[in-house]
Amino acid sequence: MVATKHAPPMAPPKPTWDPRRPEPPFPWLRPTIRIRLTLLYGGMFLIAGILLLSIIYLLAAQALNTGSDPLFKIAGGTDIKVTSENCPAVNSNQTLGEFNAAISNCIDYQRRHALDDLLSRSLLALLGLAVIAFAFGYAMAGRVLSPLGRITRTARAVAGSDLSRRIELDGPDDELKELADTFDDMLERLQRAFTAQQRFVGNASHELRTPLAINRTLLEVHLSDPGAPVELQQLGKTLLATNERSEQLVEGLLLLARSDNQIVERKPVDLAEVASQAIDQVRGEAEAKGVEIRGEQSAAVVQGNGVLLERIALNLVQNAVRYNVPEHGWVEVTTEIQHGQAVFVVSNTGPVVPAYELDNIFEPFRRLRTERTGSDKGVGLGLSIARSVARAHGGHIVAEPREGGGLVMRVTLPV
Questions:
Q1: Which of 108, 142, 210, 336 has the lowest tally of Cβ within 10 angstroms?
Q2: Beta strand extents in 231-386 (DSSP E only)
Q3: Contact at 8 Å (CB) between 345 and 334?
Q4: 249 & 365 share domain
Q5: Best-predicted range by mean pLDDT (15-29, 234-248, 397-411)
Q6: In a domain, 363, yes or no
Q7: Domain that holds residue 323
Q8: Which CA distances in Å does 58 have to 64, 67, 116, 122, 193?
Q9: In what order do the strands lie in the sheet with 341-348?
Q10: Which residues pair with 291 in a beta bridge?
């Protein structure tokens, strides 16, 4: 178990939405509000058109009286000659009954043909108007939802740490303008808060580093005196170590505060080069502890801040060396590209770590089976800084227990 007097509260989870996420390959297939409104407008028009067409058809059929008695019939007469191109069944060589029946059938046929022609032409007209209605509905939905697009673009810019952006929506005083104004007010308050935080970090950096640097200089001057008593030299070395640890704590806290935000300025950084530099810095400590550093570093270029990425590599490799077995330990450092993402993995031998303790090691000042203070292996901020830097680059870091003891730390970053 982690021995702590007062466990710090768990940090809230970071949002997983990435504002730099690319658009999907087929944006038309997304069930966006604009598409749904277009389907709603077009569907309502189509239903209304079908109802209107049905009513017109029924009224036309009723007016034409299809299937009713003929409008006229021949009652009698002599020497009647009738010809018709539309009704070839009607001719002069028929009896009076046959002639009237042919006339009635011809009229019924003409009525049905007129209704069928009316229905087909109306359906074609309705289809054309439906296409126009869907296109018009799509255009109108886009015009109505354009303020939401501005809000979304501003939110993405703000998520990239550009708090100076504002929506400044013009137009009628409706719900969308109220939403945009509320969002602008929130951004104004956030900008003031972040500005105050940056000012505080800058002031704290100066106010905390200066006295620690002065103390280190005074202690080093007194320790350089060859005539100083042994007890005084021993006390000076203890105070110097304590002062150095305080400097590390201050640097870690300031770096942790700066790395919690998104990275604005990004440059190509090769994780293989970053890992090699971290290994070179830790190699002397590893040789002193008898820990072998191995592994293959393949090219894995990402867009980010080189200094912060070096901090991730250095913290992970240092922890792997310091929290290792007393004899015949090893640390394996690898970098590669997997599934379109850059992966940086640090594995090491060491004590067996229960799976339920893995989440705690990423919290500030938390260590495995050690107190919050008094450890000579660090200040307890290394993994917290690594997690913050990974999140600021749009990636994540996970820890897995290694079979036989030790950990496997895996950092995944977008390329």
A1: 210
A2: 267-270, 291-294, 301-304, 329-338, 341-348
A3: yes
A4: no
A5: 397-411
A6: yes
A7: 267-414
A8: 10, 14, 12, 13, 69
A9: 291-294, 329-338, 341-348, 407-414, 396-401
A10: 329
- 8 Å CB contact between 302 and 413: yes
Last residue of a domain, one of 225, 259, 293: 259
Q: What is the pLDDT of residues 322-378, one digit of tens each?
A: 889 988 899 999 999 998 899 999 999 988 888 877 777 777 655 555 443 444 455
Q: Which two tokens stand for residue 269?
A: 């950084």
CA–CA separation, 194 and 144 (whole Å): 33
| pLDDT per position as a tens digit, 377-390 | 555 667 887 888 88
Is residue 18 domain-resident? Answer: no
Indicate the number of domains in the chain.
3
Residues 354 and 226 in one domain: no
Asked if 137 and 238 sit in the same domain, the reply is: no
In 3D space, the residue among 347, 349, 383 whose CA is nearest the CA of residue 363 turns out to be 383
CB-count exposure of residue 317 (10 Å: 0-12, 13-18, 19+): buried
Whether 129 and 223 map to the same domain: the answer is no
State how far the Cα of 36 lies from the Cα of 49, in Å rounded to an integer. 20
